[in-house]
Amino acid sequence: MNGFLNTFFNLDIMAAIYPMLLNGLKETLLLSVMIVPLGVGVGLLIACARAAGNRWLNLFLTIYVDFFRSFASLVLLILIYYGLPFFGIEIGTRSAVVLALTLNTSSYFAEVFRAGIGSIPYGLIEAGRSTGLSFLQVMRHIIVPQAVRNMAPDLITNILETIKVTSIASVVALPELLRMARIAQGNTYSPTPLIAAALIYIVLLLPIVKILNRLEKKAY
Question: Which residues form the signal peptide (predicted)?
Fold first, then answer.
């Protein structure tokens, strides 16, 4: 038992690598704060635009959603990070991660919002328009608030998955939590840093799950 604890839960190693993991956690939180609102916002705009019923706009947005949903987020990140410089477009590492994950996650959020909006009777849109409200006002004040109730579980799941997928930023050497844990593992020759990173993810995500579940219950 002592051998197991010394290998996977070495407290001396955890204390030594704490500053590295803390810096990685800050980067992970920064990415989450940037990507989640962008993904949700772009996805909502796409869903509302598709609900407007313009044939050519719907075709373009459907292609957008299907295209980026078909890409693994890791592959998309690699293509953007290493591919854009060939076209003379230089962006920073963090910007590449934010762009790749926003494109990927917004396509999933768009489908979640589309399903939620689709669950609301179309007659409500017509009723809202008949009172003199614009399409955007109807969506903002009538349709989207009701749709959120129907799609709350899927929306919560996608938000949590978006936070977790920020770990792929380690592939392009962005010093987020997983990247710093792997560096610490190489320095200490121990799996303890990876276990510590996993525990941090659990401590980070569990409160978010509780908060989002509480908001979901209030929505109902």
Answer: none
State the virtual CA torsion across 203, 209, 210, 212 in degrees, nearest 10: 140
Classify burial at 169, counting beta carbons within 10 Å of its beta carbon; exposed 0-12, middle 13-18, buried 19 or more. buried
Candidates 119, 116, 101; CA nearest to 46 is 116
Q: Which residue in 96, 97, 120 sits closest to 47, CA to CA?
A: 120
| Residue-range domains of the chain with CATH | 6-219 (1.10.3720.10)
